[in-house]
Each structure stands twice: as C-alpha cells, then as structure tokens.
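Final report, results section. Input specification for complex C-07:
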Amino acid sequence: MDFLGIADEEFIRQDVPMTKQEIRILSLVKAQIAPDAVIYDIGAGTGSLSIEAARLAPKGEVYAIERSSEGINLIRANAANFAVTNMQVIQAEAPDGLADLPEADAILIGGSGSRLPEILETVTPKLKQTGRLVLNCITVQTLMQCIEFMRQHSDIYIYEAIQVQVTRLQQVGTYDMAKANNPIYIVKRER
Amino acid sequence: MDFLGIADEEFIRQDVPMTKQEIRILSLVKAQIAPDAVIYDIGAGTGSLSIEAARLAPKGEVYAIERSSEGINLIRANAANFAVTNMQVIQAEAPDGLADLPEADAILIGGSGSRLPEILETVTPKLKQTGRLVLNCITVQTLMQCIEFMRQHSDIYIYEAIQVQVTRLQQVGTYDMAKANNPIYIVKRER
Amino acid sequence: MDFLGIADEEFIRQDVPMTKQEIRILSLVKAQIAPDAVIYDIGAGTGSLSIEAARLAPKGEVYAIERSSEGINLIRANAANFAVTNMQVIQAEAPDGLADLPEADAILIGGSGSRLPEILETVTPKLKQTGRLVLNCITVQTLMQCIEFMRQHSDIYIYEAIQVQVTRLQQVGTYDMAKANNPIYIVKRER
Amino acid sequence: MDFLGIADEEFIRQDVPMTKQEIRILSLVKAQIAPDAVIYDIGAGTGSLSIEAARLAPKGEVYAIERSSEGINLIRANAANFAVTNMQVIQAEAPDGLADLPEADAILIGGSGSRLPEILETVTPKLKQTGRLVLNCITVQTLMQCIEFMRQHSDIYIYEAIQVQVTRLQQVGTYDMAKANNPIYIVKRER
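Structure output:
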C-alpha cells in the first residue's frame, strides 16, 4: 500500500488540471482495482490517476485516453518518471479511441469534455459484469448527466454518489491557514 | 435591507485580503447592529465590513482600525465610493488605537495579526453589557485563542461558533463549475 | 437589523424540516427585501423564512404558500408568536394558489415538491422587472431544474449560484465538536 | 486493493461512533501500511480501522486499544466476522496498555478521550524512525493539541493537516439529497 497515495508535487503537471491526492485515493480505492485489472482512464490529464492505477495493477494494463497533445506529453513524462510500463497512452477524444480496447474491470472518468453521455453509452457494454466505474465531476451538469444515465440504466448501475471537500491547513509561520480545494463529486457504480 | 449585501466586485481591493460577501452578511447580521450603534472594525483590511456596518448604522459611528497604509488608503477610497461618512479610520495595530474609543455595541474582528489575546483583553471592558462581538478566523490558532478566551471569561462570554464554507458555481459556457472559497470560522458572543 | 437572524430554537417546528438560520439570513439578504415589498414564500414549511421576511417588510405583505396542514398550523403558530400580521397563509400546492397574488418584489422558494419547473413558469411573469427570486435546494435535481430554467430564460434571469455548508461547533464539556448541517444550494436572480 | 474500502454497513456498530469509510480509506492510505507492518489503533471504537489495517498487513500485527467493554466486544465481533486473526485487542485507556508493545510502523489515533498529549508523549518514542502517525479529530481542541505537539517536536514531526467533509447524495425517489457527514481533521506525520 505504499504504492498508493503519491504526493501531488511528485507529478509534472504544468498548467494541466490534476485530480488531487485525496480524490485520487478515494477514486482508486472505490474502483477496487485487482492486480491483473484492465483499466481505462478517460480524460487522463496529467496521467496521475493512470499511474497510480498502473501501480495497483502490476499484472494488468491501463489505457490512458487524452485528447490534448500537452496532456499526452505529460502522461508520458510522468509514466517515465515513475517507471510505469503497463500503460498505453492513446491520443483521442473519448468515446473515440475506445472501440478496440479489451473489456474493462475498472473505468475511471476524470475529464469528459462535453461528451459524457456518449462516453457512458460507449463504455457501458465494455464494462465487465462486476466491473467498477468511477467518475469525478466538478460541474453540476456532469454530475447530473451521470446520475441520469445510471438511473435510466438501473439494471446495470446501482450507484453511490458523494461530494468530497478537502481543505488543507497550510503552515504559515506559527499559523495553520485553511485553504480549500474545490469540491469534487465522486460517482461510483456499486455493482 | 437593500443596503446590506454589497457584491465583492464593488469594492476596490487590490491585493489586500477581503472578507467575502456571504461572510460579511452573516457576520453583520449576527452582530445585530442597531441604527445608532457604535462599532469597531478591527483589522479592517479593505474596509468592506466597515462600510456595510456604517450603512446599517446611519446614526451610529464605525471605527475602522487597520495597521497598513495600503489598507488605510483602500478603506478611504471605498468609503468615498459608497459615500459613507459615519466612519473614522484609525491607522494602528490593535490593541493600539482602541483606548480612547467610546463603548461599543458591536465589535468586529476580521484581522488580528498575532495579537488576538491582547485585543480580546483590551476590548472586553469596552463592550457594552449587551454588546456583540463577532470574530472571523481563517486559522485554527486564532479560532482556538478566541474560544479559550471566551471559555476563560464565561461570565461575560457565551459563544456560538460555526464554520462556513461557500462554494461558487462559476458559469463557464454550458457548465457551472464548483469553485471553493476558503472556509471561515465565525465566533460570536451570544450574550 | 436586530429583526433579522432569529435563532432556530425560537421557532416551533415539530418534525417539519426548517431552513436553518444562516441559510435564512443569506437568502433574505440576497433577496434585498425593501420595507414595502410584496413577497411570496413558496413551500413555507414552518414559516421561518416568511416571518423574517415579514419583519423586513413591515409595510409590505408576505404570502406564505404551503401544502400540508401541519405546516399551515405551524406557520400560524409561529406568526402569532412573533406577532407578525403582514402575512397571508395560503394552503395550496404551488403553483396552485399563486394566480391571484399581486406582482412580487421577492420570491423565495424553499420547498418545491416535485413541481419546480411549473412553479418557475408560473411565477416568472409575476416577478417585477427588478424583482428577486431566491431558491434553496437540497437536491441536485432541483438545483439543475432551476439552473436549466434560468439558462433557457436568460433574457430574464442572470443568476448567481452558491453552495453553503455550515458546521456548528457544539460545546461538549471542554471540547467544541464539529457537527455539519446539510449543504444547501442558493440560486438567486441577480437581475 | 479489493481488501480496502469496506462499506460502513458491513461493520457491527450498535451505538458506538465509527470512522466513516472515506475517512478510513484516507487515513489508512496516508499511513502507508506495508504487508508486515506493526500497527497501533488507539481508541479503536468498533475496530473498523483495525480490521482494514489488519487486511493491509497480513504478515503484520495490529494492536487495537479501546477502553470500553462495549467497544472491545464490537471489535472482537467484527474481527470474527471478517476472519481477521493478526489483531490483538487490548482493553485499556491509552496511554495505558502501550508500554509493552513492539515498535510501531504506523500509529492510528481515532479516539483519544481527554488524554491526547499524554498519548502523543508515550507513542512518539515507540514510533519507528520512518513510521507514520495518523490522527483523526472531530474537535478543535484535539486538532490543536496534536498540531502544538508536532510543532514542539519538529525534529521528529513534519506534519500534513487536512479537513475532509464528505456529503452523501442519498437517493430518495427521483431525487439525490445532500446529507452531510461531520467534517474530520486528519493530521499525518509526513516523515
């Protein structure tokens, strides 16, 4: 378990938004990743989720899908830094790029651009029967699209949804100042 | 009541930290400011609290205490902008500058530097028997100093303490993105 | 201003859900209620918002709309307790009961049952041009319906949306224990 | 990793307060528990943290310290339910009961009663040089005692402190209603 919980500062990120440590931890634990899992990371950004997923599944494979070239370069740089080899980096705007992937044990959706309903339509048949899907949302619209999709497909999706707000106490001289991270919704397929 | 609840953008603030609108509203309502109230605003910063207090107490007087010249200039500029005249601006590092003030109906402490215990010692005898004291804290240490002082002086202070976390939904295209403000503790003398 | 900010304990509430003090304060200040305002309180529950609104508008009139008999009785009991007379209590499930009301300066929607889109359709033409509408939501669906309606009617609605999370520090012996209230979304017509 | 993240409902808890799932996950990941770790769980309550720690350290040993008989019985019942055998249950009010334990790789402090400073004094020399200490606090006083202790022993403790607020979206008919958990401070020895 010393392979989960990498500090945010250890990733190269430039100006690309990154899922913060506590949200990564909760998302990955809720995804219940087995050592041989097949994992998609959709909207992989800096690759921080992908890299931690890859370390949890040393005998598995992570498919990191990201549309921007900047992101792709960061993912590659971070993977090299952490010596992660069980990861394939795919430059595409999901749901493009997903068709040929093997069935998934865990699907992580961090960034969905404006195509979340399509992405959910596409990945649902690719999720194994007991597979997990974990979604991080920062907008109300994305949360709602996800909840509506899961409610419409209640034969496949029983979901849990939480909002997580992390505030860091930043040490400034003799004080600890509260600095809020933005709250994130985490939606997870229960079963 | 259209005189309370000024938008944050209407204040000139440069780089000086400013109490945000919702915290101003809650602090001022909890201070139960009467039209003829005598009010201290300690660590007045940009003067945003002072100005709203002055508008709630048109027949009263606000004493805005602030140590930095930058702050003093901002307070004056903001007071001029809102045509507030029942306010005296005092450049001092509290508790300096408080000795000669008349007894207070309401004391607002937004910024205390590192001298909060001294400030509380100094203002307590200047607070009218039914006067209100409202403190905003962003650090755990300040909160704790305030709570400890009030618990030690439980003959004078029955307090209420809350933490308020406001998140703005920022409209970005077709989305509403959650952007967190830092959480603030508000401690108030109940009676 | 000593007429706003009644403590929660001062209202009779039995088991009816009640908007908590801080949310009442923010909602009423954001509604910018003038002394002669015409106000609707839709889904009035215990009447706590109505009563504070009525005190802010002593020359105005509050219309408290509530469907349940239990609520109606509580509103009447609370109004009597606070000696509020400028309030009419209407037993109806909104948007029923709204047709004959005069144009509104401020519309507060605390409880909407499952009929929020209809309510918004009905009240929009009854809102004065510069009138305020303030909505409190505890569910994602209600928030979303409100945001979608306002985005579709962007000629009438420029909105501000925030989420407010209040945590009370409950005094237990020598400790102050954090006890969270449920977070509430507040959506407000800016203009 | 399917051994971390047990649902709250799977533990027997009666009326004993229990660390909630997300806080357990974050605390245990931040404690970076190796398979052969020696772990103390101080103020073990229902044993939920102990059991997840024991599963993360199948070749290690967990010492669950709890003062109440009710807690001790729950810990035993939960350990039996999850077939956890690498755990010793010690009925004592910490720091009592800690003297004879072997050096620790990870120390979890969930409940400290009123003896936190003593507990910290006692466990500090028992923590291995690279060992982790993770503390969960619900009161400001406990947080402050922990921070002050760590600041006073800055040769041993570099700390990270966060506040985590989890809100569950409870599915009620066609709605998802926000229900807040109480916010928890997590303080962790960085190194």
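Chain C has a mean pLDDT of 95. The helical segments of chain C are 21-30, 48-56, 69-81, 116-123, 140-152. This concludes the modelling results for the funded period.
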